[in-house]
Amino acid sequence: QLQFVESGGGLVQPGESLRLSCVASGFTLNYYNIGWFRQAPGKEREAVSCISSRGSTINYSDSVKGRFTVSRDNAKNTVYLQMTSLKPEDTAVYFCAASVRYCSGPGEYLYWGQGIRVTVSS
Questions:
Q1: How do strand 18-25 and strand 68-73 relate by DSSP bridges?
Q2: Are 113 and 5 in contact (CB under 8 A)?
Q3: How far apart are CA 50 and CA 100, in angstroms?
Q4: Whole-angstrom Cα distance, residue 83 to residue 33?
Q5: CA–CA separation, 2 vs 89, rounded Å?
Q6: Distance CA 11, CA 120 (A)
């Protein structure tokens, strides 16, 4: 059965770091480009980052550039979002998603993680 399972969220203090992971089962992750998204309370979903199927091309939103790093290990069927220098405004539910095209629009993502909460607060 197909699963795309996220882990690594939680509560951290401003300035601290957190790493999110998404592990795919039931499908082969190296066939897909990956997007990371987040949705803060009362706000629309926003794109955070994209990484190509081989990991050779990466993009970040301006709000996270220089603080977040996306990577993947296709041998482990896993993608990562390393978040550093976290700010309260990073508080959101974070989603990983898989698509055929790179940096697709939301309707083009075929598989979504369940969402995982990140809370940055003192």
A1: unpaired
A2: yes
A3: 12
A4: 20
A5: 32
A6: 6
Backbone angles phi, psi at 5, to 5 degrees: -110, 125
Cα–Cα separations (whole angstroms), residue 30 to 6, 27, 53, 97, 99: 17, 9, 5, 13, 11
Would you state the structure tokens that stand for residue 101, as one six-digit string?
A: 């095209």
Alpha helices of the chain — where are they, by DSSP H? none
**Non-local CB neighbours of 57 within 8 Å, separated by 6+ positions:** 50, 51, 102
Which tokens hold the place of 8?
């690594």
**Burial class of residue 104 in the structure, from the number of CB atoms within 10 Å of its CB (0-12 exposed, 13-18 middle, 19+ buried):** middle
Cα angle 36, 71, 16 (rounded to 5 degrees) comes to: 75
Mean pLDDT by 10 residues, the chain (122 residues): 92 98 93 96 95 96 97 96 98 96 91 97 94
pLDDT of residue 2: 82
By DSSP bridging, strand 10-12 and strand 116-120 are parallel
What does the alpha-carbon distance between residue 94 and residue 76 come to, in Å, rounded to a whole number?
A: 21
